[in-house]
Design a protein that fits this description.
seven-stranded mixed sheet; 7 helices; Aconitase/3IPM_dehydase_swvl; Aconitase, domain 4; 3-IsopropMal_deHydase_ssu; alpha/beta; 205 residues; globular
């Protein structure tokens, strides 16, 4: 997992309330080899004129320069639907580091944290105002500072807290998944096991 401390980027607004995981990556692509990257399948069907056709230039992620953005602004209940972790893989492999939205599907939200993708919840009114600002000022940038636990918005929208689970935050800051985080306590775990066996020798039989 790639460590995340602070990311400053332009923002692409993805339309659609209840954008589910099948829209993020259609199920038929989940058989593909992850080593080849799932980024090529991100929003595959909704960013095309038809399921297998050419890219639709009206879709925000297809516009010039949009592929340089590492932050997406999404609408309410983003990532709902099935529990497929491939939806997060597609975003991460495309180079997306953070998402801003009013709410996220619960399983998707937790999958994001486990893969170093930072989901930032902001009030829906603020997200709507930010989208309008980006329409008028497409070059505007946002900074997600996980180390300082804040997001800095453009214009007069100010600075807002970024609140995620402390354990998940530490792992993302260090670029470690849950297993790797656990292994950082290897010496303490071994010491506990040795002491436990010494005080309860029957456990080792």
């Amino acid at each position: 997992m790639r460590a995340f401390t602070k990311e400053t980027s332009g923002v692409v607004a993805i339309p659609g309330v209840n954008c589910d995981t099948d829209q993020i990556i259609p199920g038929r692509f989940l058989k593909a080899d992850r080593a080849q990257g799932y980024g090529q399948f991100l929003f595959h069907d909704i960013r095309r004129r038809d399921a297998d056709g050419e890219l639709d230039p009206r879709f925000p992620l297809n516009k010039p320069g949009a592929d340089q953005a590492t932050i997406l602004l999404v609408e309410d209940n983003f990532g709902c639907g099935s529990s497929r972790e491939g939806a997060v893989y597609a975003l991460v492999d495309h180079g997306i580091r953070a998402l801003i939205g009013p709410s996220f599907g619960d399983i998707f939200y937790n999958n994001a944290l486990k893969n170093g993708l930072v989901p930032v919840r902001l009030p829906v009114e603020l997200c709507d105002a930010l989208e309008d600002h980006l329409t008028r000022f497409p070059e505007a940038q946002v900074t997600v500072d996980l180390e300082a636990e804040r997001i800095v918005l453009p214009g007069n929208f100010g600075t807002h807290p970024v609140q995620i689970d402390p354990f998940a935050r530490e792992g993302i800051l260090r670029g470690l998944d849950e297993i790797e985080m656990t292994l950082t306590y290897k010496e303490q775990i071994q010491a506990f096991e040795s002491a436990r066996i010494a005080s309860h020798p029957w456990l080792g039989r």
